[in-house]
Amino acid sequence: MAHSCSLLPLPFILVLALIPFSCIPSAQSATDDGSSVHESLLQCLQNNTTPQEQISKLLYPQTSASYASVLRAYIRNARFNTSSTPKPAVIITPTKASHVQATVICAKKVGYQLKTRSGGHDYDGLSYISDQPFLILDMFNLKSVQVDIKDESAWVEAGATLGEVYYNIWQRSKVHGFPAGVCPTVGVGGHLSGGGYGNMLRKYGLSVDNVVDAQIVDVNGKLLDRKSMGEDLFWAIRGGGGGSFAVIISYKIKLVPVPETVTVFRVERFVEEDGTDVAYKWQLVAPKTSNDLFMRMLLQPVTSKATKKKTVRVSVLALYLGNADSLVALLGKEFPEMGLKKENCMEMSWIQSVLWWANFDNGTSPDALLDRNPDSADFLKRKSDYVQNPISKDGLQWIWQKLIEVGKPGLVFNAYGGRMDEIPASDTPFPHRAGNLYKMQYSVSWDEPGAEAEKNYLNQIRRLYSYMTPFVSKNPRSAFLNYRDVDIGVMEPGKDSYEQGRVYGSKYFNANFDRLVKVKTAVDPENFFRNEQSIPTLPNGKAGMTSHTRCSRYTRAIVKTPVPHPFPPTNPVYEPLQPHEEGVPPAGDGKAYEAKL
Ligand SMILES: Cc1cc2nc3c(=O)[nH]c(=O)nc-3n(C[C@H](O)[C@H](O)[C@H](O)COP(=O)(O)OP(=O)(O)OC[C@H]3O[C@@H](n4cnc5c(N)ncnc54)[C@H](O)[C@@H]3O)c2cc1C
Ligand SMILES: *[C@@H]1O[C@H](CO)[C@@H](O)[C@H](O)[C@H]1NC(C)=O
Ligand SMILES: *[C@@H]1O[C@H](CO)[C@@H](O)[C@H](O)[C@H]1NC(C)=O
Ligand SMILES: *[C@@H]1O[C@H](CO)[C@@H](O)[C@H](O)[C@H]1NC(C)=O
Prior knowledge:
The protein is an alpha+beta fold. Among the domains are: 145-257, Uridine Diphospho-n-acetylenolpyruvylglucosamine Reductase, domain 3 (2-Layer Sandwich); 261-307 and 316-347, Vanillyl-alcohol Oxidase, Chain A, domain 3 (3-Layer(aba) Sandwich), CATH 3.40.462.20. It has helices at 26-29, 35-47, 67-73, 97-110, 162-172, 188-193, 201-204, 226-229, 231-236, 275-285, 324-334, 350-357, 393-406, 419-422, 451-467, 498-509, 513-523, 543-558, 589-596; strands spanning 59-61, 90-92, 113-117, 134-138, 145-148, 153-157, 176-177, 211-217, 223-225, 247-254, 256-257, 262-270, 293-303, 310-320, 345-348, 379-387, 410-415, 438-446. It is globular, with a radius of gyration of 24 Å. The protein binds flavin-adenine dinucleotide (FAD) and 2-acetamido-2-deoxy-beta-D-glucopyranose (3 copies). Residues 346, 362 line the site of one 2-acetamido-2-deoxy-beta-D-glucopyranose. InterPro entries: BBE (IPR012951), FAD-bd_PCMH (IPR016166), FAD-bd_PCMH-like_sf (IPR036318), FAD-bd_PCMH_sub1 (IPR016167), FAD-bd_PCMH_sub2 (IPR016169), Oxid_FAD_bind_N (IPR006094).
């Protein structure tokens, strides 16, 4: 049952066992283990819930024997699983919406930051680490998926995983599905609030293009639905990031039709073969072909078994909402360079294709989608870019050299077009619609612990990102919120600055950023829901200032010793990106590229 959510499989070496075991709260134990805030929080929560709710059982302070395992269960990046990673004072694990309401009220009262975690897949760990004293609101118990086939819809709770969503739909119908991500352990709460895309986006758009209602808890602890929150806030929580606006309890999603038989394939070429021709043509075909076809292309530096030399492998993976014969005919006409044959194709049910995309072995039962696979993660870093003009063959060849030179990171091209081109850029906060041929993901995963390895691989992926500058979107250089990347800008700890927020906000949201700021200012003027890349309030709102003073007075009254949270602890998470002089194509070529396109 080997399975991995990584796009670029790791060589399977178990060095994790070498990490010295360290007591989780050690970063704080010298000063304060958070027991005073735990006490105040518990009192407040008890005041705001009924005795029957036994709220104390849902809290994990640092002194709890289960604290480390609860914290680690949904850490999905081993970089943030070290003794020096900042830890929450208390983890709150609600089983009902009313617990969430009480938590919001009481987190404000004790003056601690509240981080909401659903599936924990944030690439930079923003749902479970912070630069300020904080609490985690951990949604893993709120995971119901209620499918209504007659209405072709479902209510899905934030703590459900995508695998659980797909499984529950499949149990009720073999001809319905939902367009969302390919990794089954990703959480609904972060995925949908951040946009959510998967291998049906050319047919049905993003996950958020198929969200019709939601239940949230706002900053005042009120439980709201689409009608009571209003269209502006409902717009914002469909791609603007949940962490800036509210706690998402659940979304109502519209199911989409899928055929009884779909087809998948994976075709690989090396660049010494005709890999460059295939990669070039992919850019012309994948964003323009039938909406029923999604093709992802992976570009990975590898060592050739035959020559022992480093080279680049081009792999194309596809999902086609139809049978193999019509797919072979379609690509025979549009993409003869790939030479797709029927033997390369596998016909299967949609749910089997979900398992195939998640790298499960052939014939694995759909039950595997229910495995949450807790407390397991690689060390990883991801970055993103958008490409609006095809890269020339010369450009690709230059990129192959750079991939080989840099070492480990690979690139994943995800075709857009189709339905994505039809939806206006302002329909949801996610702006990367018509005009974008594909999204690029930069991907590096490693299994050696320690600061040296981390520094090396972060440096590699940042160099590659720098090299790609001539080929990707500019002004702003756009990025995908769900591919969280703190390199593109962060809010300084304790600040609520429009100017700082605009640095990353304009990249994630382009022209939609200002509307998000307006919604944010209206619904959370004191900036309670915040993180290192959240939406700031309006500069002249100023509402934040007084409340901050008030909050810190609370903090001083309740927490005797302020808890120091060094962030980043030892690793340069926010080290500014150094421009690389070599990061441009050979002299004169940059212009030539533009001209050739
Ligand atoms: C292995 C892997 C594969 C991935 N594949 C895809 C993919 O195919 N397509 C894609 O679009 N993305 C993909 N992603 C990115 C993923 O969609 C985002 O990381 C997403 O935010 C994860 O949601 P989560 O609930 O698991 O994360 P979390 O880490 O729990 O949360 C992410 C962010 O959302 C906030 N948040 C979480 N829950 C709530 C809530 N209930 N209310 C308010 N705010 C909340 C958090 O505070 C944090 O800011 C992948 C990530 C990984 C690690
Ligand atoms: C809880 O309620 C009691 C009685 O109303 C009050 O005295 C106390 O201050 C409250 N505590 C908190 C933390 O809200
Ligand atoms: C965290 O580290 C421990 C060892 O200290 C390991 O057992 C566990 O699997 C790791 N979890 C993750 C999510 O990396
Ligand atoms: C998986 O199944 C397909 C079709 O049923 C078959 O062609 C293929 O060889 C199988 N692959 C493996 C690794 O078993």
